[in-house]
Amino acid sequence: MGDQPPYGQPPMQSQSAGAKWGATSMGMESHIAAGLSYLTPIAGLIFFLMEKTNKFVRFHAMQSIILGVGYVVWFFLVFIVQIAISGATTVATNGASTGFGLGCIVGCIGWLGGLAFFAGWLWGIISAFMGRYQKLPVIGDLAEKWAGGPAQPAF
What we know:
Blueprint: H1 30-36, H2 41-50, H3 55-92, H4 102-129, H5 140-146
Helix pairs in contact: 1-3, 1-4, 2-3, 3-4, 3-5
């Protein structure tokens, strides 16, 4: 009975999660477009370039792009350090294995960094699909700036 309007009143209209952010220039609901932009950094780039008016979609698309590029940079940085340590260890020990060492520590740090990127991606995609303007730590302000400023609800 709590979700029924009072007797004699018209039925209540429910709004979608992204309705408050207004229409998109692509003809999609804003929360769907924003959520889909997190599928890959390429999808984020496509949504960012195609969406001209909706800052909510542009913000989430830019946040997705920055997150994806950051992950790729992180992956290659850890990979290069891992290769350098592996090569240096092999030369220093004449090919003998040193067991648990600096390479394992770098691998663990790389894994934890990857887990942090995954958590940020998951937080972003859930927020976008739910229609929330949620800035991720570190990259949220940059994404907002590059998307053209903060998004304002349409109503």
